[in-house]
Amino acid sequence: MTNIVRLHTPFRPNSTAARQAALLTTFADHRRFGDDVFWLKENAEALNVLECTGAELSAEALSVHGGFYEDIEKRMGFFPQYYRFLLSICLDLEDLGIPGRKGAQLAHWVAAQNLVEAEISDLQRAEARRLCLRRGVDPLGRDEGLDDRLRLFARRSNTFAMPNKKAAYELTHIVFYLSEYGRQDPQLDDAFVESLKFAGTLAFLDLNVDLLSEICIALRFAGQQPSEIWENWLVSQAQGFVLQEDPDGPVQDDYHQYLMVNWFMKVADKGGFGASIPQGRVTFHQPTPSALPLRELSECVYEMGEARSDDWQAMRGPVSDHLSEEAYTVLTAAEAANDRFDAFFAGFARVGLHGAIA
After folding, report:
1. Do 355 and 306 touch, CB atoms closer than 8 A?
2. What are the backbone angles phi and psi of residue 334, rounded to the nearest 5°?
3. Could you tell me the CA-to-CA distances from 333 to 88, 202, 311 in Å, in that order?
4. What residue ranges in 192-305 does DSSP mark as E strands?
5. Where is 171: in which H helix or E strand?
6. Angstrom distance (rounded) from CA 258 to CA 42
7. Rg of the Cα trace of the chain?
8. Is the pLDDT of residue 98 over 50?
9. CB–CB of 130/173 below 8 Å?
10. In what order do the strands lie in the sheet with 3-6?
């Protein structure tokens, strides 16, 4: 019989430690298999969240990864293209308490093999550096400009006033790496913070639980207070997630959204990971949005053609008249959540190039 558990269930018969152990087992044993790169991705993400939120796992709970940890050098030697996943899993397991000190050996091997030099992205280089530095190894000792390049990208706030999920996720991860996942001050300037708030405004308009959770986490890691409107909405969405035991369920589900919104709740001291985890194969389902406010807003502004303006005060009325009631409600909340909404909209409207391309 199908077993459905909601996050806001008031009666939780098991302990925090038991729920954390069950979550670990779910990803380790019941969704994918260890030679699947998506298994590596899911488990690296789950372990990362557990480690950086201070989870306390017993030796019995960690034993689910015992065989994988035992063979991790073999896997690293044959799958060096996945070294960031493998190193991340190894380091988190050790920092969560699994017996062993293989992480330092692997970090030195990654540096000696110059694996970071195969990365095409500064963001991936920053992740690799962060991982290796957890064991005192700097694989990029000659690259002194990496942080400057990341900050230069992040300070261009107009990038984040236009829908571009890839750029927005990269922005949040830059903060994660610069802050060592909240363990140090990332020293963000005003332009960097504005980029996060612009990206958050778009994520809220898109009703994107996953991205908005990451943005609120990044803001808190930077010592900033995210909008109460955003955070209250995230809490309400977390309460609507459903965890379903389903032996034949799809693995392309909302597991990442579940991890991110609960990570946000832990960082914001609003609970998090309060659901009992069903045994066996679990699928994760988030609430389905009843509207597409960002799409409606984008289509409305685009269709205005020559009449569109970057002046929000002039555009508010015409835009509002063309939106559904649900989209208008979200837009009004988005405006209230960002005291620089006028500046955000000036970038979102993209008037500068209008008519100027020959």
Report:
1. yes
2. -65, -40
3. 38, 12, 19
4. 242-245, 282-285
5. helix 165-178
6. 12
7. 22
8. yes
9. no
10. 3-6, 242-245, 282-285
Structure tokens at 174: 């830059």
Tokens of 152: 């230069």
Question: How far is residue 168 from each of residues 82, 87, 125, 199, 261, measured CA to CA in Å?
Answer: 23, 25, 18, 6, 16
Alpha carbon distance, N-terminus to C-terminus of the chain: 63
In one-letter notation, the amino acid at residue 5 is: V
311: left (phi over 0), alpha (psi -120 to 50) or beta: beta
Cross-strand pairs, 3: 245
| Alpha carbon distance 358, 341 (integer Å) | 31
Residue 13 in tokens: 């018969």
Query: What tokens were used for 228?
Result: 């109460």
**pLDDT over 70 at 6, yes or no:** no
CA atoms within 13 A on the CB side of 175: 25
Cβ(237)–Cβ(261) below 8 Å: yes
Distances from the Cα of 349 to the Cαs of 12, 60, 87, 202, 300, in angstroms? Answer: 48, 55, 42, 13, 10
Beta bridge partners of 282: 245
Q: What's the pLDDT score for residue 201?
A: 98
The distance between the two most distant Cα atoms of the chain, rounded to a whole number of Å, is 67
Residues 200/160, Cβ–Cβ less than 8 Å:
no
Q: Is 61 exposed, middle or buried (0-12, 13-18, 19+ CB in 10 A)?
A: buried
Token representation of residue 4: 């459905």
Statement: residue 263 has pLDDT above 90: yes
Rounded CA gap, 162 and 347, in Å?
7
- Closest by alpha carbon to 7, among 194, 324, 243? 243
Question: Helix, strand or coil for residue 31?
Answer: coil
pLDDT tens digits along 306-353 = 899 999 999 999 999 999 999 999 999 999 999 999 999 999 999 976
Burial 215-235 (b: 16+ CB within 10 A, else e): bbbbbbbbeeebbeebbebbb
